[in-house]
Structure formats: C-alpha cells, structure tokens
Design brief:
The chain is of the alpha+beta class. It is 47% helix and 18% strand. α6 crosses α9 (337-359), α7 (304-321) packs across α9 and α10 packs across α11.
Length: 461
C-alpha cells in the first residue's frame, strides 16, 4: 500500500492511497467464489454456476462492495502509519478501480490542530469573596417565606397586591365587546396582568360587590381595535384573596428538612445552604474566567466538522430547555450562525483543556472523585445507594471524572494566573455583579437579570 499526503487549506488533508492490483483482485475473486455457491441462475445447477458467469453478472457490484470495504480499512491503516489524528470522517473518492491496475482512491478530512500552550500568567482572574451577614440571612428567609405564601380570603375590600376573581363585560359605544369580556378571571391587582384603569376600578370592591366604570386601553394594546379606546366595564367580584406569609414554625421548618432544633436549626440550615451556593458561585465564576482567558491567549485553526457537531449539540440543548423532542431543532431550521461563535469557543477551549491534561499528565484525583460523588449523593435519602449507582455506570463515572479533571485544570492554571482578590457582599457575588465590568457612562446595570439570578438562588434553597 502506497500513501501520499497533500495539505490543502488549514487543517484539511488529502491522502492518496494505492493498493496493489493483485491484492485487490484477490479479494474480488474470493468474494465471487463465495457467491458462486449461493447464487441461483436458470440453466445451472446450484453451486455449479461457472465463475465466469458469476463474474459477468455480479462482478461490478462485488468490485464496488470490496472497494468500499478496502477504502475504510486502508484509510485506518494509513492514518496510523502516518501518525495522523483525524478530526472528521473522511470523504472517500475512487480514482482508479479498473481490472489490471492498482486500486487508487483519495481520502479528504480535517486533522486536529497542534495546540501550543501559552504562558498561563497571561490569564487574568478576579476572585470574589464575601461573608454571609445576618441581613443576608434574614433577606433569604424573607424570600423563602414569600415563595411559600398562600392566598387566603380577605375580609375587606380589594387593594393592590390582592388576588381577585371577577366576572366582567365591556361595552364600546353601547355595543358588547367580546374581547373585553370574561368569566372567572383571576389576577393580582397591580401586577400588570390587566390594564391600569381596570385595576383601579376593582380596588375598593369586596367579594360579591359589583361596579361599573370606564377604562382607557393603552395605545399599544395587543388588540388594535381597542387601542386608545374607552370601554365601559361592568364587574362583579367573586373572590378577594390576600397574600399570607407562613409563620416561622415547625411545619415551615420541616419543608426544608429541619425536623428538630427549631428556629436556630432552621437558621443554621439556611446559612449552610447559602454558604454552599456562595462557594459554588465563586468556583463557577473563577472557572468561567479561566476558560475565557485560555480562549483569549490561544490562537489556532479549529476543525470545521467538530464545530458543526457542536452547533447541533447546542441546538438540541436549546430545544430541551423548551421541552421539545430530540431532533425538533433541525425541523425548525434554526440558522447555524446563531450558535457558531459559542460552538467554536467551546471546541477551542475543549482542545486547550485536553492539551493541558495531556502535557501536564493530569489524572482524576481519586479523593476528589469521591468528594464529588458525596456531593451529588448528599441531597438523597440513601446516599450510599446513589454512589453505588454512579460507580456501576461507566458513562456517569466518566462524566464525573472529567468534571474533576476540569477542576484540576482550573487549579493548575490558577497557580500561574494573575489573580485580583475582590471583596464584596453575598448578593453581588451570587449575581456576578462583584466581578462584572464597570458600567460605562450612559449604561445602566441589568438589574432585572441580577434580580432573576437572586430569585433562582432562592428557588434552589
């Protein structure tokens, strides 16, 4: 077998592989001889069909079949022989396949790039830190109470913040407007669920009371026919409920796994959860900065096929967030450009991390793997069974070991990185505001995003 290598553009390579004609024809003849004993041709007894007739009828098909198999096997042999590292499946094209001459084909594919590691002291990391103050604890407990609040019947007229259930009809110039009518409509006053004038018209009404009032629809209302129009509403209030916060008692504490110890134990549990969340936020923010830093200080070509596969993964991940079935992302025909930069960065960082692991001969620390298993199993009632399940599942254990290895890579980079210590408060560290770039004049912080982060943190509690 003769092999020649041609460098095309970037990471693309083309192998031209020639296989001795005798070896190729031997494979074809052997395949035809095997087929001879199985084919049935009118006029010939089973197993007695002349090889010449078998070749005449099936020779071309067998030649193509053998060529396909030999291209696959010869390609694998060639890349091993030439010490190449393919990053994509090859595009195989036949050059010569006629009898009496060497079988020749080309294989075109991308190879993995050579990653030359830069000096890690170029990586800049802000390491946030904070103490959990008593005010942070009280704020978190207040948020937990809000999350577990209930709606109870109010023995007073409706006011802002109450949840009301109403029946209503709307008329415009004396004619009923179906889009402005409803039965059993439940909403919270002052939350923007109804137009502002409707909210104002319901305030002050108790359960069972009725009222008629005018309400002006906004100019940008979704129903164009009602934009800017004044509609007369007739409303009957069926229910008025007010928000009731739960008491800090044993029943409430048990919802968070605190069976005994009262309020003191509950405070300790919440503070412990907050500390775990704080530690996790710091760890994740440092890791993200390290990975971003590695991407910034390295430049090398990236295999297009791997980026394309990563784009597919990102599409499927996005669809799973919307609880859509696998494969639905492709049917939606989402543009690859929407995911390209993120996919390219993920591939790039992955190649760098693999090179760090290889060049530094890092292996997953068994103690850290055990600690990771304990961390994953801790929330469950019988953690030992959970750990046993992970250990009996090679794929899951591989994921855990890779996660530990990535943490070790971060530690390895941090030993050389330029680190800025940022002392802040709990809220800003959790939200990421502690290490966020300074706000430029004319811009404003994304307070909504920060608030959402805080609410997600409370939900996890």
């Amino acid at each position: 077998m003769n092999v020649s290598i041609e460098t095309l553009t970037g990471l693309e390579r083309r192998l031209t592989i020639a296989i001795d004609s005798d070896a190729f024809e031997e494979q074809i003849t052997a395949r035809l001889q095997s087929a001879r004993g199985q084919v049935k041709i009118p006029g010939f007894r089973a197993g007695k069909v002349p090889i010449k007739e078998v070749r005449r009828r099936y020779g071309d098909a067998v030649r193509a079949e053998v060529a396909g198999e030999m291209m696959q096997s010869s390609f694998m042999t060639a890349v091993q022989q030439e010490n190449m590292n393919p990053a994509s499946s090859p595009k195989l094209d036949v050059v010569k396949m006629d009898p009496g001459i060497d079988f020749e084909f080309t294989a075109t594919f991308d190879v993995f790039p050579t990653v030359e590691l830069a000096n890690f002291d170029k990586v800049q990391v802000k390491r946030p830190s904070a103490e959990i103050e008593d005010a942070d604890l009280e704020s978190m407990i207040a948020r937990l109470r809000e999350q577990h609040a209930t709606q109870e019947p109010a023995v007073r007229p409706a006011q802002e913040g109450d949840q009301v259930t109403v029946d209503f009809t709307g008329e415009l110039d004396g004619a009923r407007v179906e889009e402005a009518c409803g039965e059993g409509m439940t909403f919270t006053i002052g939350q923007g669920q109804m137009i502002e004038d409707f909210d104002k018209g319901v305030v002050g009404l108790g359960a069972g009371e009725e009222s008629t009032f005018d309400a002006v629809f906004p100019d940008d209302y979704r129903a164009e026919e009602l934009q800017g129009k004044t509609v007369q509403f007739s409303v009957k209030v069926a229910e008025v409920n007010e928000r009731q916060l739960p008491e800090l008692n044993e029943e409430f504490f048990q919802k968070f796994g605190v069976e005994e110890g009262g309020e003191e134990a509950f405070h300790a549990e919440v503070r412990s959860n907050m500390q775990r969340e704080l530690d996790s936020a710091v760890k994740n923010q440092i890791k993200q900065q390290v990975m971003d830093g590695l991407a910034e200080i390295h430049e090398f070509p990236i295999p297009h096929d791997i980026v394309h596969r990563e784009i597919h993964v990102l599409k499927e991940q996005m669809m799973s967030q919307f609880q859509m079935p696998p494969g639905q992302a492709q049917s939606l025909d989402l543009p690859d450009a929407l995911f390209h930069d993120q996919a390219e960065k993920r591939v790039k960082v992955g190649l760098i991390v693999n090179e760090v692991i290889s060049s530094s001969e890092l292996v997953a620390d068994a103690t850290k793997v055990d600690a990771k298993l304990q961390e994953l199993a801790e929330p469950y009632g019988e953690p030992e069974q959970v750990i046993e399940w992970y250990r009996s599942n090679p794929e899951q254990m591989g994921n855990i070991e890779m996660a530990v290895l990535e943490d070790q890579v971060v530690d390895h980079i941090m030993a050389s990185a330029e680190i800025e210590e940022v002392v802040s408060n709990y809220t800003d560290v959790i939200s990421g505001a502690a290490i966020a770039p300074p706000v430029e004049e004319g811009d404003s912080p994304d307070a909504e995003a920060i608030a959402e982060t805080d609410n997600e943190s409370a939900d996890e509690k």
